[in-house]
Recover the amino acids of this structure.
DNA sequence: TCTGGGGTCCTAGGACCC
DNA sequence: TCTGGGGTCCTAGGACCC
């Protein structure tokens, strides 16, 4: 393994991605710049269950946070400008952004729609890393009209931590030797992989900063969070991360879809319709990507966010909507008491294969050909709709 | 105020086999 | 009556990420 001292990793992160991308489009059309005013991207604000997907910096200054209910954001600032999401446009912005990043190094790992890692070890030196990062950031801004943060570090963890420092439109370094000064004073929650629950456990033991976490032996940490996670946290808190920038695009391991209702549902017909819809979506997506799935799982969520899930293995992998739906219905009957109102249901598939081989079954459902034909028509309709849109 | 949607990985217990 | 150890697979649930 290449030692951290010899690696130069960039992490590039689009500032308030969805909000910035929506702003770029609006500005091009002659509208106002959403980034300069309190604004958010969110679902329908009249639906009490809609949440904020992305918030502008002026909105964040008013205390509006990503993932909070939009009704709550409106209470904080009634003049808040709200725009809906536009996935096709986000996809275009993301692709253009990734293309520019890739021109700086082919060793690129896309981490999400708005983030990537670059291994720059053979592309620049430590002395000109900031200059190179600044060039990249400015090129994105000039050509695409939105800003990014570039984090530069000795490994992926440090690069990612660095890109999260002051925003927007900034380049920061976090080299191994800067860890005590720049990372250890931060609160534990700022460390990657430390979420709400882990933070609570650490605080309960008096561990407040990443530095205190780094100094903790793995023995006592294991008792709090489990052995494997403890080892990782210990390494990360000390600024170590040996993971490489993975260029291979790995295939999905599962697909899922879920629906939250605008009011809790008890009607079996309405719930069945919801399962039908999510089954159509999931099955269509695996067919589109050439998969068949062996495992079907469903979950239901009640008003208190209590979740019950069930999964089951099918005898043969399938991509037929009706087969997946049938399995989901069977599982649903096992876990729902028929009276508890549900706020959300979901359906997922996993154990995916590209196998086309199909075992001939003597008991093959005679309606199977009809089901497949139904799916073909569904897919054709989807394809037509997406062509019209794009 | 009242909490979306889509993923990944880990853990712990039970079943089952040798 | 009390009772092994290891391995694998499966399931439900939990935690994290964007």
């Amino acid at each position: 393994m290449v030692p951290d001292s010899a690696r130069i990793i960039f992490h590039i992160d689009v500032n308030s991605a969805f909000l910035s991308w929506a702003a770029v489009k609006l500005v091009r059309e002659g509208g106002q710049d959403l980034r300069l005013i309190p604004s958010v991207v969110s679902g329908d604000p009249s639906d009490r269950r809609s949440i904020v997907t992305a918030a502008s910096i002026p909105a964040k200054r008013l205390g509006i946070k990503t993932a909070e209910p939009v009704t709550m954001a409106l209470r904080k600032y009634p003049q808040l400008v709200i725009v809906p999401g536009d996935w096709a446009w986000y996809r275009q912005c993301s692709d253009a952004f990734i293309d520019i990043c890739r021109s700086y190094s082919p060793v690129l790992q896309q981490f999400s729609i708005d983030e990537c890692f670059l291994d720059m070890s053979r592309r620049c030196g430590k002395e000109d890393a900031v200059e190179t990062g600044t060039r990249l950031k400015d090129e994105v801004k000039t050509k695409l009209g939105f800003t990014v943060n570039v984090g530069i570090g000795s490994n992926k963890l440090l690069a990612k931590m660095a890109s999260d420092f002051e925003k927007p439109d900034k380049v920061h370094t976090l080299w191994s030797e800067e860890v005590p000064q720049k990372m250890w004073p931060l609160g534990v929650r700022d460390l990657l992989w430390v979420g709400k629950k882990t933070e609570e456990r650490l605080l309960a033991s008096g561990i407040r900063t990443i530095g205190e976490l780094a100094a903790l032996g793995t023995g006592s940490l294991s008792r709090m969070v489990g052995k494997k996670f403890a080892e990782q946290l210990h390494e990360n808190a000390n600024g170590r991360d040996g993971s490489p920038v993975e260029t291979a695009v790995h295939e999905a391991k599962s697909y899922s879809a879920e629906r939250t209702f605008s009011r809790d549902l008890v009607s079996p017909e309405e719930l069945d319709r919801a399962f039908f819809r999510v089954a159509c979506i999931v099955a269509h997506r695996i067919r589109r990507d050439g998969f068949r799935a062996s495992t079907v799982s469903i979950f239901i969520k009640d008003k208190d966010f209590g979740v019950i899930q069930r999964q089951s293995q099918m005898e043969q992998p399938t991509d037929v909507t009706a087969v997946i739906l049938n399995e989901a219905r069977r599982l649903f009957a096992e876990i729902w008491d028929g009276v508890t109102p549900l706020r959300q249901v979901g359906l997922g598939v996993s154990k995916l294969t590209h196998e086309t081989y199909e075992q001939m079954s003597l008991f093959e459902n005679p309606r199977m050909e009809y089901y497949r034909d139904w799916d073909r028509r569904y897919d054709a309709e989807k394809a037509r709709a997406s062509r019209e849109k794009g």
About this structure: Chain A has a mean pLDDT of 95. The first helix of chain A runs from residue 17 to 28. Residues 42-43, 48-51, 53, 67-69, 71-73, 75, 226, 228-229, 252-260, 305, 344, 346, 348 of chain A lie near DNA strand B (CB under 10 Å from a C1'). The domain at 184-237 of chain A is CATH 1.10.150.20 (DNA polymerase; domain 1).
